[in-house]
Amino acid sequence: MLRRFTPVAWSSNTNVYEVNIRQYTPEGTFAAFARHLTRLADMGVEVLWFMPITPISKAGRKGTLGSYYACSDYSTTNPEFGTVDDFKKLVQQAHEAGMKVIIDWVANHTGLDHVWTTTHPEYYKKDINGKYYDTHGWDDVIDLNYYDQPMRAAMISAMEFWVKECNIDGFRCDMAHLVPLDFWRQARLALDQVKHLFWLAETEDIIYLDVFDTCYAWRWMHHTEKFCKGQLTLENLVGLLQVYREDYPAFTCPLFFTANHDENSWNGTEYEKYDGAARPLAVFDATWHGIPLIYSGQELPNLKRLKFFDRDTIEWTGRNQLHDFYKILNQLRKQHPALGNTLETRPVRIATTNNEQVFAYARYYENRQVLVVLNLSPQPASIQLPEGKVQGTFTNIFDKRPFIITPQLTIGCKPWDYLVLTD
Questions:
Q1: How far is CA 60 from CA 52, 68, 105, 178, 281, in A?
Q2: Which of 15, 61, 252, 414 is least enclosed, having the fewest CB within 10 Å?
Q3: Within 13 Å of residue 73, how many CA atoms lie on the same side as its CB?
Q4: What digits encode the pLDDT tens for the residues 57-84?
């Protein structure tokens, strides 16, 4: 029987913040980003996920700066961002601020002029004419050949470099399902001997959860967008959550998000995609069984699509309107025992008198409870909860006011409203 891996202890109830170094500051460097660590730590950020920090191929480069995901060397940094020593210092500073660091790892393909194309051409797939190619038609990358065992060993050695040299805490593995599962098992077995790491897969292929700690909740992202466009019902969303509960391994906490680098650049900001639902869906991400992701600038909030291949700096104003919003949610997740990602604390849906618009659920731990009410509608709603299901004196986490739930209480919800109550 194949071994299942145990997630690193600190990952069970964490959050992830995706860092787009290129667009984060006018300088676009590790050192410049470091100035934001204190602010992010205050916001309650626990894991910093850095988009690929490796150098970018010049051949086939898109735009002026190219794609982060077209690597030219796995064992050094993009000189635009700084040196390996600069990154090592940033990791140390993040650790001192109480945060973990994971890096984006692109194992399926490299850029067109990766060093291996000249030193080890046998590491790549070739067509009948002996030319490198990419299976998916991406014209700035070429596929690696996972039948080549020395290539696998070289890839694991490159990953090990970042663990040993910079003391990173894990990997976000790009398009993980395009790489053979047995390679990821091989890599994790090797790297866990060095350090117990956090493994996040960009996939929803359940078989990959035999190796990875968590994966993307892609279907939830697509379902909620369709829901906001009137193409699905709230019951469709609830049904998908049941699928996650029944089909995923018990220890897996899906990564929930309303934005990331791909979605923001190619499909629109969370406000384009979800309109007023962006905020209540962020509340959902933080209070459901899973791990919430925040993308660079969502705390502003950033209302523009960031260019992918060119410089397009986030327009920081010094007034991050949602800093406290995310801080309150992150603190609640950390401090309230009912929000632990355990079997005992899994969310329980609470039926209301308006199940077409309003999604309500509770989470329990012994005699502690959290109640979440989300009006996923542009219309106001008034609801009542089942008598005896939830009652007592609570605190509204956002305004700190007491909230008393009694039998027959009517709760009024504004359009796109959200309510999080704790005992």
A1: 18, 13, 20, 22, 38
A2: 414
A3: 11
A4: 999 999 999 999 999 999 999 999 999 9
CA pair distance 353, 275, nearest whole angstrom: 25
- Rounded Cα distance, 171 and 168, in Å: 8
Model pTM?
0.97
H/E element holding 18? strand 16-19
- The whole-number pLDDT of residue 72 equals 98
pLDDT of the residue at 342: 86
E-strand stretches of 125-242 = 141-143, 170-173, 198-201, 214-215
Cβ neighbors of 393 (< 8 A, separation 6 or more) are 402, 403, 404, 405, 423
Task: Walk me through the domains of the chain, giving residue ranges and CATH numbers.
Answer: 9-335 (3.20.20.80), 348-422 (2.60.40.1180)
Residue entry with tokens 């391994």 = 249
Q: What is the pLDDT of residues 5-23, one digit of tens each?
A: 889 999 988 999 999 999 9
Q: How far is CA 24 from CA 28, 34, 41, 368, 387, in A?
A: 6, 10, 16, 39, 49
- The DSSP letter of residue 386 is P
